[in-house]
Automatic annotation (TrEMBL), chain A:
Family from the record: Belongs to the binding-protein-dependent transport system permease family.
Superkingdom of this protein's organism: Bacteria
Keywords: Membrane, Transmembrane, Transmembrane helix, Transport
Pfam families: BPD_transp_1
Residue ranges of the TM segments: 16-38, 50-69, 81-100, 139-163, 175-200
Protein name: Osmoprotectant transport system permease protein
Annotated InterPro entries: ABC_transp_perm/SBD (IPR051204), MetI-like (IPR000515), MetI-like_sf (IPR035906)
Membrane topology: Multi-pass membrane protein
Compartments where located: Cell membrane; Membrane
Organism in which the protein naturally occurs: Nesterenkonia halotolerans
Domain ABC transmembrane type-1 intervals: 15-197
UniProtKB/TrEMBL annotation, chain B:
Name the record gives this protein: Osmoprotectant transport system permease protein
Membrane topology reported for the UniProt record: Multi-pass membrane protein
Keyword tags: Membrane, Transmembrane, Transmembrane helix, Transport
One of the Pfam families matching this protein, by short name: BPD_transp_1
Domain of life: Bacteria
Localization of this protein: Cell membrane; Membrane
InterPro entries: ABC_transp_perm/SBD, MetI-like, MetI-like_sf
Membrane spanning residue stretches: 31-51, 63-87, 145-167, 187-206
Region Disordered, annotated ranges: 222-241
Organism of provenance: Nesterenkonia halotolerans
Biased amino acid composition, Basic residues: 230-241
Family: Belongs to the binding-protein-dependent transport system permease family.
Domain spans labelled ABC transmembrane type-1: 31-206
């Protein structure tokens, strides 16, 4: 453990670098998935190709993608930018389907009512549909955030610095403390970001506070209906 | 772009594929690792997942555990175990199983839970024992979701098995890391393309399997949970994996 105490600076620095690689990817995945999901729901012919297509991206293994991207984008293999782009692609693969389903779950009644009160298409989307889909969108973002933070470290084998460097260095120099510190910091980082997302969700969507209490009741009623 | 052209050209030569350490042998190794790791994960996680789904006990714990497992960096696990076991196949296998088991587990319990409660009650009313309900009703009807858990696990393993070579094992990671160390871009890129194709191929095999199962009469066909509920389950699998 003395290794950890002596290298707190390095660990702290790598944590920040790690965040700088993963958080932009989460934001990009979220921002790009919304319009894609909107298109998927609006133009029905495109729905399946779009959702399966982005889903298929998830089948692409991370390390090969880190290597393939530079050849396509024109960066070098050790460029942090590749990592951000690759992680955004993975985030997108996870996020587009859940965003499309979240937006699709807003019922037609709600949409029609909003139109009836005088909302235009765009206004209705941002003030009615997006907030209502919020909780489901949040669930998707949480998954993307945790898996991005965990995935970043793979890029360390290419020589891109992150908490993953603690694994490659620790392995090369036989320091268990380094590897353990990397694992603990990655998990803690993921948990903290997840918690912040939950808190942000509470602040932005105060109406969702009782959702957890409402849902079981709904399910019970549904089961009773099914039984009857 | 030039590098890609060169990589593809290299892939099209017979030399790249033949002999010891050729891409063909490495691909087979890679698939072998995947099968072993998937087999171990399934042997550990399937019974547990089915039990959780059947009894409804331990669900909360497993949801939290699968979520936490997602945050575990595989490279960290791999290098940590490798420091204890030395180079070879043990460390990659441990890491791959820890990586894949949560997806299998989540698929299994979500699959069993997706079965309409009314159907389960009906089976019980006909006098089926708990074991019979599980094997004749819940597993067959939950099969699509159980399979999607296995499919996700297989994909995760194929993707991560490239790292096995980092601690001295074989697989497609071997030529990949060799290319990385010697700045041989065509080798590195070509191998990457093979890994990607392999992943897509395995995914397609699982996809076809799932589609075929849906065609078997009585399996997952007439059984449909209410719309909202189904959607929730699918999300549960995704979130659990």
């Amino acid at each position: 453990m003395s290794w950890v105490l002596e290298n707190l600076d390095t660990i702290g620095e790598l944590t920040l670098v790690h965040l700088a690689l993963s958080l932009p990817a989460v934001v990009i995945a979220f921002l790009v998935s919304i319009p894609l999901a909107w298109v998927a729901n609006r133009i029905r012919v495109l729905r399946e190709p779009l959702l399966t297509g982005t889903g298929l991206l998830y089948a692409v293994p991370s390390l090969p993608l880190f290597i393939l991207l530079p050849a396509v984008v024109g960066t070098s293999v050790r460029d942090p930018l590749n990592v951000v782009i690759a992680l955004s692609i993975f985030g997108l693969a996870l996020m587009v389907r859940s965003a499309a389903e979240a937006l699709d779950a807003v019922t037609d009644d709600v949409r029609t009512s909003a139109t009836a009160i005088g909302f235009s298409g765009v206004g209705r989307f941002f003030t009615v549909e997006l907030p209502l889909a919020g909780p489901a969108l949040l669930a998707g973002v949480r998954v993307v955030c945790v898996s991005s933070i965990s995935l970043v470290s793979v890029s360390a084998v290419l020589g891109v610095n992150s908490l993953g460097s603690l694994f490659t260095d620790g392995f090369a120099r036989d320091i268990i403390g380094s590897i353990l510190a990397g694992i603990v910091m990655t998990v803690v980082l993921a948990l903290i970001c997840d918690l912040l997302l939950v808190l942000a969700g509470r602040l932005l969507m105060p109406w969702n506070k009782n959702a957890a209490a409402v849902r079981p009741r709904l399910r019970k009623r549904r089961t009773q209906e099914a039984a009857a | 772009m030039n590098n890609i052209v060169e990589a593809v050209r290299w892939l099209l030569t017979a030399d790249a594929w033949s002999g010891a350490g050729g891409l063909w042998e490495r691909s087979m190794e890679h698939l072998g690792y995947t099968l072993i790791a998937l087999g171990i994960s399934a042997a550990l996680a399937l019974p547990l997942g089915l039990l959780i789904g059947h009894t409804g006990k331990g669900r909360g714990v497993s949801v939290v555990a699968t979520g936490a497992a997602r945050a575990l960096p595989t490279l960290g696990l791999l290098t940590l175990v490798a420091l204890f076991t030395g180079i070879g196949l043990t460390a990659p296998m441990v890491a791959l199983v820890i990586l894949a088991a949560p997806s299998v587990l989540a698929g299994a319990y979500a699959g069993v839970e997706s079965v309409n409660p009314a159907t389960v009650d009906a089976a019980r009313a006909q006098g089926m024992s708990g074991w019979q309900v599980l094997t004749r009703v819940e597993i067959p009807l939950g099969l699509p979701l159980i399979l999607s858990g296995l499919r996700l696990a297989a994909l995760q393993i194929i993707a991560t098995a490239t790292l096995a070579a980092y601690v001295g094992a074989g697989g497609l990671g071997r030529p990949l890391f060799l290319g990385l160390r010697t700045y041989d871009y065509p080798l590195m890129l070509g191998t990457s393309i093979v890994v990607i194709l392999l992943a897509i191929l395995v995914d397609a095999v699982f996809g076809t399997g799932q589609r075929l199962i849906r065609r078997i009469p009585g399996l997952a066909g007439p059984q449909r949970a209410p719309r909202g509920e189904r959607r929730g389950r699918r999300r549960a699998v995704a979130a659990g994996g």
